[in-house]
Design a protein that fits this description.
There is one protein chain. By secondary structure, the protein is of the alpha/beta class. 42% of the residues lie in helices and 15% in strands. It has helices at residues 11-22, 67-76, 134-143, 153-183, 192-201, 207-210, 214-217, 220-229, 233-249; strands spanning 2-7, 26-32, 48-49, 60-63, 83-86, 101-107, 124-128, 148-150. Helix 2 links the parallel strand 4 (60-63) and strand 5. The longest helix is centred in the middle third of the chain and has 31 residues, at 153-183. The N and C termini lie far apart (68 Å).
Amino acid sequence: MISVALLGAGNVATHLYKAFLKSETVSVVQWYNRTRASISSYANDVDITDSLDELKEADIYIIAVSDDSISQLSSDLPFSNRMVVHTSGSVAMHDLDKKNKIGVFYPLQTFSKTAEIEFSEVPICVEVYEKENLTLLKDLAKAVGCKPHKITTEQRQTLHLAAVFVNNFTNQLYRIGHEICETKNIEFKILHPLIEETAKKIQQMSPYMAQTGPAKRNDKKTIKRQLKLIEKEEHEAIYKLLTASIKKTHNLTSRPVTKK
């Protein structure tokens, strides 16, 4: 049995707690957050605390707080020589205080508290300072049905950057598409099958090969027509930028297209 203490009450911490709860080989011995009220609803299921001095002994202490708070929280821990990891995609492992055994346990997924996650499909990126601690993190990942991936800080930070493009930026494009639909009283859900098919397609071929659309076809008439339909300058700028990027990727060089 692997004993775990969770530190933090955000989306990642909440989903990790739920995943650990389902595991037969993981025991969450305590859940810490500086604001007790944030985790008070779980008080009947797990020991909760808002005091670092009250932290119980555990095999692994998982810091799942905002990136800016990780270093300070690790320094504030009132013990040493224990296994302490963070869950960030962008923070270096060495930002953790080396008075403890340090590492990273990074679940590569987008988390919202209200959205259920099938944890067995989440890649877990692990990193350790001392090789002898790698097995423990791999075992923890496997205990919740995940596949662990041993990577370096540079690889993890690069993955996180790529994730921002494919997830956060893509979601912003969904929001823009939703807004454009609303201007003409169109239900955004009509686009759901297209969104799902696009996500499926890149699991079968490279994004380069999967690219379609007017920019890929160098369809100047359609591009001009669509630019005239765009009502916001912000949306127009994004449309032009992405169109130019697609053209450059597929060697379709030409003068910039305008609304005229």
